[in-house]
Design brief:
- This protein has a single domain, classed as Beta Barrel (Lipocalin).
- The protein is globular and about 45 Å long.
- By secondary structure, the chain is an all-beta fold.
- It has an eight-stranded antiparallel beta barrel with strand order 1-2-3-4-5-6-7-8.
Amino acid sequence: MAQVDNTQGAAAIAGSWLVTTTDPTPSIVGIISHTEDGVVIQAHPNPALSAGHGAWVQTGERDYLLTFLYLRRNAQGNLVGTQKVRRMVNLAETGSSFTGSFQNEVLDLEGNVERSGTGTVQGARIVAEPFV
């Protein structure tokens, strides 16, 4: 089956990805989508976090910077702050995966950092598969 060449141009990161992060706690798996016009949408498995929304820019031939925010809620459903994620990722030559690192900040409602951390990230492109 022919694959689309996703390695050229600014939109090479565009698409949906299965993402694994390690920080160094156990890996967290999520799904992230990058639109061709620079929008990021990330689903997180933690029910206390909203979907993440943000932006991406290309910084090199296959290098990208992403920033996105989650809304954080407590057990009662009250908004308690945000979580900001910044990622630097490098797209593989095949366009089917990426690797990188991230910085994470948990912020209160006034924007004060409650805690922060760093870790690594890996992504695998989600592709259309034949219907059998």
